[in-house]
UniProtKB/TrEMBL annotation:
It comes from Seriola dumerili (Greater amberjack). This is Putative cytochrome P450 120. One of its GO terms (molecular function) is iron ion binding. It comes from the Eukaryota. The chain crosses the membrane at residues 66-85. Belongs to the cytochrome P450 family. Signal peptide: none annotated. The keyword Transmembrane helix applies.
């Protein structure tokens, strides 16, 4: 068994969290090159951590033997902030909650792109994602209860559903806690009085204690899910903007769209990855991982593993019907294995619905045509400067906008 390449450095001084946070992609790329290995070690969150950038090591971590050796800390990027669930308790929760995510709960395709002005697509899609989660999880619909919808949206943006005090952030923190308390009051009221939809089903589940349902609802309506959906939809519209070749085969749905969306999540996974802690000495990709080490899989890197994905940086939807056919499980945008995302089917339904709607009804292009599309990757991947686009309805005469498709 070999020693992990790299160096975990000394406590505190050797910590690389800030460097990672500033630019995770350059961080991992430099080290892969330096150590000539897609698995290496570094100090993150002041803990020696194994970085996983290959498909094989990701599969070993999330689906293999190592999975059972780890205490799972990273329940979901969104859940991670608040809950540390492991073992049996997590399995029970998964069983209860999975039944609620069968994916048949989507009818929304209202005409959400109405203006003929250039739109900031990320904001439009974030609003759409917020409408989805509040409608689905809380029965609060923007068109029926605009004030309540607006209030909850604001509270979700600033609330902090944690009880940990953050140093140097006292006033912001108490505002965030106030917001959380107000959200909790709204959620509890819903759980007591609403018998319909998701809320109604959730309160009838055999959950471990009385606060469990409200805690979960708080997580499900957190701003991160709309942001992750907006991230994928923004990347989708960007990848296809000015690319009539990819947009044209509208008749080939749904298979073609499925491949396009796989390629979108491969190149622009909304979350950077997930984290585990080894609870005993283990082996990963042939390397020794000591007890207490962290292990973080970097989806951006795993999805560009040249062993599996040829021309890894190129947008090639056709790879999913060719060389990579049947290899969807090599992606980890929604995690993988027994602790993968329970919302992934729901996301799939929602994304396809939204994308089919866009493709059927609109052409679009960047407006202005030249924009800085450099991505940032934390907390959710998207262009640092949110791009603006013009949408033209297909059943109307083309606008006189100067689209360069
Ligand atoms: C585009 C949207 C989403 C993305 C990209 C996403 C991503 C992920 C990822 C990467 C994981 C695994 C984390 C790990 O390996 O540690 C995960 C787990 C999880 N996700 Fe999501 N998620 C999304 C939406 C949702 C939705 C809509 C829900 C449900 C309301 C949800 C609930 C969960 C839960 C409960 C887990 C933890 C499962 C467990 O630990 O057993 N996610 N998600």
């Amino acid at each position: 068994m070999s020693k992990l390449p790299g160096n975990a450095g000394v406590s505190v001084l050797g910590d690389k969290s800030l460097e990672f946070y500033r630019d995770p992609v350059s961080f991992y790329r430099e080290r892969i090159e330096k150590h000539r290995s897609r698995v290496f070690q570094c100090r993150l969150l002041n803990r020696p951590t194994t970085f996983i950038c290959s498909v094989q090591a990701m599969r070993e971590l999330l689906c293999g033997r190592l999975c059972s050796l780890c205490i799972i800390v990273y329940v979901c990027v969104l859940v991670n902030l608040y809950l540390h669930v492991s073992g049996e308790e997590a399995c029970l929760l998964r069983l209860s909650l999975t039944s609620l995510f069968s994916g048949s709960c989507l009818e929304s395709s209202s005409d959400y792109i109405t203006s003929r002005q250039p739109e900031c697509v990320y904001s439009v899609f974030k609003r759409l994602g917020t409408e989805l989660v509040l409608g689905l999880f809380l029965n609060v619909r923007a068109e029926e209860q605009p004030e309540l919808f607006q209030e909850i949206t604001q509270l979700c943006l600033i609330s902090a559903p944690v009880n940990v005090k953050v140093p140097l952030w006292s006033s912001g923190f108490s505002t965030a806690l106030d917001a959380r308390d107000k959200l909790m009051d709204i959620i509890k009221d819903k759980l007591e009085n609403d018998t319909q939809g998701f809320v109604g089903t959730l309160r009838s589940l055999p959950l471990p204690d009385s606060s469990c349902a409200s805690q979960h609802l708080l997580l499900f309506i957190s701003a991160l899910i709309p942001k992750a959906l907006a991230s994928l939809l923004t990347s989708f519209t960007l990848a296809l903007s000015g690319n009539e070749q990819v947009r044209k085969p509208r008749q080939k749905y749904p298979d073609y769209l499925h491949r396009v969306l796989l390629e979108v999540q491969r190149l622009w996974p909304p979350f950077i990855g997930g984290r585990r802690i080894a609870d005993k000495d283990s082996t990963l990709a042939g390397f020794h991982v000591p007890k207490g080490y962290g292990a973080i899989y970097i989806s951006h890197a795993v999805h560009r593993d040249p062993e599996v994905f040829q021309q890894p940086d190129n947008f090639l939807p056709e790879r999913w019907s060719g060389r990579n056919a049947g290899q969807e499980h090599f992606l980890c945008s929604f995690g993988s294995g027994p602790r993968s995302c329970i919302g992934s089917k729901l996301n799939d339904v929602f994304l396809k619905e939204a994308c089919v709607y866009l493709l059927k009804h609109y052409d679009w292009c960047l407006d202005p045509p030249s924009q800085d599309l450099e991505y940032k990757w934390l907390p959710v991947s998207r262009p640092t400067n949110p791009p603006t686009m013009s949408f033209t309805r297909l059943d109307q005469t083309r606008s006189d906008k100067n689209c360069t498709s």
